[in-house]
């Protein structure tokens, strides 16, 4: 497998690096991913983005594809971690990218070589409309410090659902007011998407710099 190409923002001499993977449907340079990378870099954090093979192939030929299979997604994360080093590294990403980061973090714990932390932006706790199909087994036992930033009305895991889950004490949840899966609130909430993004970026930066 060809090593993923890296898109890097922020200072080279930063005290911590945050590696972010994209979600299932949008690339590493979507407006959402750009906003988080730029916001974190502006707070003195080195941010590294990459694409899974299916998304890199879509960029090359324009053909839409579904996500790669589980072994490929895990292997891609391991390639990136191997290149960056684990010691001062937080791994995470949007939706699927963050989910796989958290699973790989659990694997690395079991191997005795953990990363510094995990940051999930809109964790897909279950498929929309299928709350019985939870994706939380590894989050019950993970020991790596983990921050999950979640919109209160995310169809992949609403606040009232997620707060009933049994998650590891290492998992911290921060709720974005009235946010959907991309943290966008309804106008009636009195919040804006930009405000929720800024709040999420600030929380992620504080988390990464505190480790």
What does this structure look like?
There is one protein chain. The protein is of the alpha/beta class and 211 residues long. It has a single domain, classed as Rossmann fold (3-Layer(aba) Sandwich), CATH 3.40.50.1820. The chain contains six helices and seven strands, in the order ββαβααβαββαβα. The chain has helices at 31-41, 53-61, 70-84, 96-110, 159-162, 193-210; strands at 7-9, 17-21, 46-50, 89-94, 117-121, 146-151, 171-176. The longest helix has 18 residues, at 193-210. The protein is globular, with a radius of gyration of 16 Å. The chain starts with 6 loop residues before the first strand and ends with a helix. The mean pLDDT is 97.
List keywords for this structure.
211 residues; alpha/beta; Rossmann fold; 7-stranded mixed β-sheet; 34% helix; globular
Tally the helices: what do you get?
A: 6
Helix content: 25-40%
Number of strands: 7
The third-level CATH topology is Rossmann fold
The sequence of SSEs as H and E is: EEHEHHEHEEHEH
Please state the CA-atom Rg, rounded to the nearest Å. Answer: 16 Å
CATH architecture: 3-Layer(aba) Sandwich
Please specify the SSE layout and strand pairing.
Elements: E1 7-9, E2 17-21, H1 31-41, E3 46-50, H2 53-61, H3 70-84, E4 89-94, H4 96-110, E5 117-121, E6 146-151, H5 159-162, E7 171-176, H6 193-210
Parallel strand pairs: 2-3, 2-4, 4-5, 5-6, 6-7
Antiparallel strand pairs: 1-3
